[in-house]
């Protein structure tokens, strides 16, 4: 096993160098705040946390993406740039060891998203191949949050509903529940709200609402300059009343469900989507162009699209993912050997001054080792 | 051959625990003022200790005591998998309190967890930080927000007392806290969300599953359990 791992390691180092990625070597002990801040509190129970002498939260490196991106921001290096990594990560898991090896590439600052998306998929597959995985024995599943968002826009849903549905993307159960609430008759979402305020919201009396809310905040002694402002609360109340009184027509729900059910070979996905949306007379615009351009770029990078599948409902429920997501698994297994996606929001969350396009993938080397060595 | 039962060491929880034991035919008399020991009549081989309610939860988890009376909220907060670590012998009908999600009354647009999910989801874009929740119940909060309601974007601010004052003090936006009558929340102009009750807690008699017992003690423990089963 150890010998196998060394072989895998050196094969990957060689491949990463050939693909123009420079090794990033982040420390094992890292500040925990950026993780809690980007991935949310749910991560807290899965990472190894400790406190530094001056009270700061520290953790054992739970992934490479965050420290690689943070290092880049701190150094202010030129863009575009590709970083590679290989080493141990630490997570508390119910099954499986708490420390395991990952490797991968983060691709920062490439403005041509189709090219860099395609490169991430192609490099992930090339990495598996270099490790000795028979690509004929794996499933590669691809999803695209951009298309889902475009469908919601094309259906003309109120923005509040669009945001609520987008948040559930990749979480099948929660998406179903949200759709159910959207389709069912008038919900009592307005119960418990002062009827006078509901009337004002219906009439879009934002100024009056703001004044009333400001008075309440002052009475409660809420600090005026931190947290939600009266204007923000008034605007959301107006939107909420609008959303509560909107219904998803049966036709629209049907289209949305048909879209979410799309699960086909990637080389047939364009046609399939055109069928579903075209029948309804809807145009997905730029999102569809992005999807098609990415497919062309993957072909150009020698990825055989007929071996990949596209699943419209496939997403990774972390709120910094923005577009492409993908996973490679052994056929019939749920555990990824490789996974990745586009995370255009992460760099600014971590402190970059301007948005930086970013896409990457990581490999689960222990699982790959098991597959390769039997 | 002895088994141990810990009950809260002060206040109404202690009085009511003593009364509950009395109903089961066990008379407990507290010793000298600062002692943690008591004298027990009505059950041979039972030792009753006085501990703080949160300590009782910890000792049950560790298997350092056989039985304990404490709040369900403390057990569910301090033990990762409470149904494995302890068994609930009996809910005792006192010490009622709800663990709830409460937001400022001025948040007139927020009445449900769905609303809160919307607010949390766009909080960073508007304010450059996550929505902050003050609580001493971080485990209960996490599982309610993340697992049940799929809300990921928030930060917990650990609060060690006077949680209800956190929004006015500006140290948090909302709170998760325990309430019995709701009057403290009201005085601080906070409201409980319609579906924001995380747990309806009361005092429970619990048995440690982690405790290693010899055969004789096991029989004693069974006996004690039966006293309350009826």
TrEMBL record, chain A:
L-histidine binds at residues 63-65, 91, 102, 106, 316, 320-321. The keyword Kinase does not apply. GO terms for molecular function: glycosyltransferase activity; histidine-tRNA ligase activity. It comes from the Bacteria. GO terms for biological process: histidyl-tRNA aminoacylation; L-histidine biosynthetic process. The keyword Nucleotidyltransferase does not apply. Residues 7-169, 247-368 form the Class II Histidinyl-tRNA synthetase (HisRS)-like catalytic core domain. Signal peptide: none annotated. Gene3D superfamilies: Bira Bifunctional Protein, Domain 2. Keywords: Amino-acid biosynthesis, Glycosyltransferase, Histidine biosynthesis, Transferase. GO terms for cellular component: cytoplasm. This is ATP phosphoribosyltransferase regulatory subunit. The lineage of its organism: Bacteria, Pseudomonadati, Pseudomonadota, Alphaproteobacteria, Hyphomicrobiales.
UniProtKB/TrEMBL annotation, chain B:
Gene3D superfamilies: Periplasmic binding protein-like II (3.40.190.10). It catalyses: 1-(5-phospho-beta-D-ribosyl)-ATP + diphosphate = 5-phospho-alpha-D-ribose 1-diphosphate + ATP. One of its GO terms (biological process) is L-histidine biosynthetic process. Pfam families: HisG. Pathway: Amino-acid biosynthesis; L-histidine biosynthesis; L-histidine from 5-phospho-alpha-D-ribose 1-diphosphate: step 1/9. The keyword Transferase applies. Transmembrane segments: none annotated. It comes from the Bacteria. Residues 53-223 form the ATP phosphoribosyltransferase catalytic domain. The keyword Thylakoid does not apply. GO terms for cellular component: cytoplasm. GO terms for molecular function: ATP phosphoribosyltransferase activity. It is an enzyme of class 2 (transferase). Its EC number is 2.4.2.17. InterPro entries: ATP_PRibTrfase_cat (IPR013820), ATP_PRibTrfase_CS (IPR018198), ATP_PRibTrfase_HisG (IPR001348). Keywords: Amino-acid biosynthesis, Glycosyltransferase, Histidine biosynthesis, Transferase. Catalyzes the condensation of ATP and 5-phosphoribose 1-diphosphate to form N'-(5'-phosphoribosyl)-ATP (PR-ATP). Has a crucial role in the pathway because the rate of histidine biosynthesis seems to be controlled primarily by regulation of HisG enzymatic activity. Belongs to the ATP phosphoribosyltransferase family. Short subfamily. This is ATP phosphoribosyltransferase. It comes from Jiella endophytica. The lineage of its organism: Bacteria, Pseudomonadati, Pseudomonadota, Alphaproteobacteria, Hyphomicrobiales.
């Amino acid at each position: 096993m150890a010998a196998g791992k060394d072989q895998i390691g050196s094969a990957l180092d060689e491949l990463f160098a050939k693909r123009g990625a420079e090794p990033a070597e982040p420390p094992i002990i890292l500040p925990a705040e950026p993780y809690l801040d980007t991935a949310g509190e749910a991560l807290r129970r899965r990472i190894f946390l400790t406190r530094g002498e001056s009270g700061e939260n520290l953790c054992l490196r739970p992934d490479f993406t965050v420290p690689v991106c943070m290092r880049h921001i701190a150094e202010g290096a030129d863009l575009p740039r590709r970083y590679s990594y290989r080493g141990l990560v630490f997570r508390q898991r119910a099954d499986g060891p708490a420390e395991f090896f990952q490797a991968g590439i983060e691709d920062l600052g490439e403005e041509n998203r189709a090219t860099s998306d395609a490169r991430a998929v192609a490099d992930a597959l090339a990495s598996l191949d270099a490790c000795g995985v028979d690509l004929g024995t794996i499933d590669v599943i691809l999803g695209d949050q951009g298309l889902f968002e475009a469908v919601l826009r094309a259906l003309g849903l109120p923005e509040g509903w669009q945001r609520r549905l987008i948040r559930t993307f990749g979480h099948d159960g929660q998406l179903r529940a949200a759709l159910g609430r959207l389709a069912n008759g008038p919900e009592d979402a307005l119960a418990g709200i002062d009827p006078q305020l509901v009337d004002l919201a219906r009439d879009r009396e934002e100024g009056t609402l703001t004044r009333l809310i400001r008075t309440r905040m002052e009475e409660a002694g809420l600090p005026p300059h931190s947290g939600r402002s009266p204007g923000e609360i008034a605007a959301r109340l107006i939107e909420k009343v609008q959303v509560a009184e909107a219904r998803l027509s049966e036709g629209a729900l049907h289209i949305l469900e048909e879209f979410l059910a799309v699960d086909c070979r990637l080389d047939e996905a364009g046609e399939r989507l055109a069928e579903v949306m075209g029948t309804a007379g809807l145009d997905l615009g730029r999102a569809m162009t992005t999807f098609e351009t990415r497919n062309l770029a993957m072909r150009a990078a020698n990825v055989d699209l007929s071996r990949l599948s596209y699943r419209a409902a496939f997403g990774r429920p972390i709120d910094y993912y923005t577009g492409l997501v993908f996973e490679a698994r052994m056929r019939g297994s749920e555990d990824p050997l490789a996974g990745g996606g586009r995370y255009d929001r992460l760099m600014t969350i971590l402190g970059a001054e301007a948005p930086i396009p970013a896409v990457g993938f990581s490999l689960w080397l222990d699982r790959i080792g098991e597959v390769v060595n039997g | 051959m002895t088994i141990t039962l810990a009950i809260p060491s002060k206040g109404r929880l202690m009085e009511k625990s003593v009364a509950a034991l009395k109903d089961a035919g066990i008379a407990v008399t507290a010793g000298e003022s600062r002692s943690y020991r008591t004298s027990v009549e009505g059950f041979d081989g039972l030792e009753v200790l006085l501990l703080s309610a949160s300590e009782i939860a910890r000792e049950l988890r560790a298997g350092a005591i056989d039985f304990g009376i404490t709040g369900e909220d403390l057990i569910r907060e301090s033990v990762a998998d409470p149904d494995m670590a302890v068994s609930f012998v009996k809910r005792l009908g006192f010490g009622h309190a709800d663990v709830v999600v409460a937001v400022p009354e001025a948040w007139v647009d927020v009445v449900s967890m769905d609303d809160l999910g919307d607010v949390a989801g766009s909080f960073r874009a508007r304010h450059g930080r996550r929505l902050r929740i003050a609580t001493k119940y971080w485990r209960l909060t996490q599982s309610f927000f993340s697992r049940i309601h799929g809300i990921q974007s928030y930060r917990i601010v650990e609060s060690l007392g006077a949680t209800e004052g956190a929004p006015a003090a500006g140290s948090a936006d909302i709170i998760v806290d325990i309430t019995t009558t709701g009057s403290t929340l009201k005085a601080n102009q906070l409201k409980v969300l319609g579906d924001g009750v995380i747990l309806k807690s009361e005092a429970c008699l619990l048995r440690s599953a982690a405790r290693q017992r010899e055969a004789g003690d096991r029989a004693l423990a069974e006996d004690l359990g039966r006293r309350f089963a009826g």
